[in-house]
Specification:
about 400 residues; about 0% strand
Length: about 400
Amino acid sequence: MHYEAIKDINKAINNLNSLDESIISQIQEAINNIQDEKAKNQLQNKLNKKVKWLKEQEAIKAVEKTRNTLSENDYNKAMKLVDELHESSVKDELMEALNQIKELMETKKEQDDIKDSIDNSIIDDDIDLDELDESLDELQDRIDNLPDGEEKSKLQDELDKLREQLKIESEKRLKEATRAVELAEATKREPHIQRAEDKIAKLKDGPDKTALEERIKAIRYIDQQDSVDIKDAELAVKLAEATKKEPYISRAKAKVRELAFGEEKNSLESRLFSLEGTINSNDELILKNAERIVSLAEKLKRESNLLSARDATNRLKPSEEKTSFLIRLEKVAKEIEGKELTDDDIAIIKAIYYVGLAETYDYEFMIRKAMEEVEKLPEGQNKQDLLNRLNNLIK
């Protein structure tokens, strides 16, 4: 009976292939019941070695899994298993493997972070080129510190492409700013001077930017030296406001036009614009008639009514009412076509309104406003046509 028990325990230990606590407890209990101390010690040592070996195998599998996944969660699980092993050469080897894997994980994380930074570096009209250039230098330093390999080469290629885009954008902005300065020098008028300054502000710091800034300063100085006395212009505006008729309005506009760019000029132009807007406002009856025709077009949604409403609206003078009518009619036109009115559609109509005001009244502040609205439009023929109309005003 004693021999059979030892035989069964040996067989159970040999067949043990997992760290199932219930199975190990059963074997341990059987060993505890053996009376022969020598046999009992031999069985205990055999069980201990088998459990130690199984734990090592479990840790080895966990380390290999971590090597494949480079997962933080898998790494933590493997580290816990290795840490719980008894001191041995196996444990030392596994700990060294985990240290190497940790370095790989940190490298991969750094690679992923660099890639995300490159992917998120979108070069558009609003990006600060100096800040982007500095950011790319930092990314270059980080790539240089990566271990050599395929992933490092890929990241370097992506960064090189981004630098090329930065170079193209920088050269494009320099050309645009140079053309804007040349136009400002030729006209010595707003809004060209302000537009040139806005273009220069978007350039990278350097000798090219400094040179263009100096040229604009020279224009500003000449403009200020040659400007008409502000008091003379203000008197002319007051006379125009008092008389509300020609030739006093035209005389006031001429004097104000020669003033240097600044708050005083903007203020006087705004007063004259308000005066002319009051004098040239649309007749109330004409507005009511247009409102009636537009409302009918909205209700019936027929092409014939739409054409009639557009004809009536187009005869109105530039005004907020006219712009509102045009937006409503554009919505009707889209509905007839089975489409929706977009923000771009509205933006084009509003830009046309401001260009119309600029053409009608020829005030610099209004030209600037029109230019701002047109610049917001998406690239296309509509935008180019409006820019051409504004350029005709300031030649």
